[in-house]
Design brief:
The chain has a single domain, classed as 2,3-Dihydroxybiphenyl 1,2-Dioxygenase, domain 1, CATH 3.10.180.10. The protein has 129 residues and is of the alpha+beta class. The protein starts with 6 loop residues before the first strand and ends in a 7-residue tail after the last strand. An 8-stranded mixed sheet has the order 2-3-4-1-5-8-7-6, covered by helices on one side. Helices cover 17% and strands 43% of the residues. The protein is built from 2 helices and 8 strands.
Length: 129
C-alpha cells in the first residue's frame, strides 16, 4: 500500500544555513550533518539519532524560493491534486522533478489560500505503508 496524504519531509531555504541549523542543534538537541551542494555551498540534514528529520538548505542554491518551513506531502493522484490547487484558491509557484531521495518523482510547490507554502509530491510506487 502506498503512503499518501502524509508529510514525508520538511525543509527550509535560508540565507545562513550554518547559523540556522546550529539553532536547532542547540535548542532541541538535534545533530547537524553538512551536505556540500553546488561547489562551496553547505546545506544541512538535521538528524534525530540516525534519522534525517529536517533539511536546512542554502538559499544561494535555491533562488526565488519560499520562506519558512516547507512540508512535502505525498498525493495519490498527482495530476488531479495539481489541477485542484487554483480551483481551491491556491497558486502554483513552480513544478519540477528532483533527484536525491526522489529521483524522477514530480513535485509542485503550491501556495495555499493563507499564503503558506506546501509541496505536493507524486507518490513513489516503491514506498510501502
Amino acid at each position: 500500500m502506498k503512503k499518501i496524504r502524509r508529510i514525508n519531509w520538511m525543509d527550509m531555504i535560508v540565507a545562513k544555513p550554518d547559523e540556522t541549523s546550529l539553532f536547532y542543534e542547540q535548542v532541541f538537541g538535534f545533530v547537524r550533518e553538512a551536505l556540500q551542494e553546488d561547489g562551496d555551498h553547505t546545506s544541512y540534514f538535521v538528524k534525530d539519532g540516525n534519522e534525517n528529520v529536517l533539511g536546512i538548505c542554502d538559499a544561494s542554491v535555491f533562488p526565488n524560493w519560499v520562506s519558512g518551513w516547507l512540508p512535502y506531502i505525498d498525493v495519490e493522484d498527482f495530476d488531479h491534486s495539481v489541477s485542484q490547487i487554483e480551483a481551491s484558491g491556491g497558486t502554483i509557484h513552480s513544478q519540477m522533478k528532483m533527484g536525491f531521495n526522489w529521483e524522477g518523482q514530480r513535485f509542485c510547490l503550491a501556495i495555499d489560500p493563507s499564503g503558506a507554502p506546501v509541496m505536493l509530491c507524486e507518490s513513489n510506487p516503491n514506498d510501502e505503508a
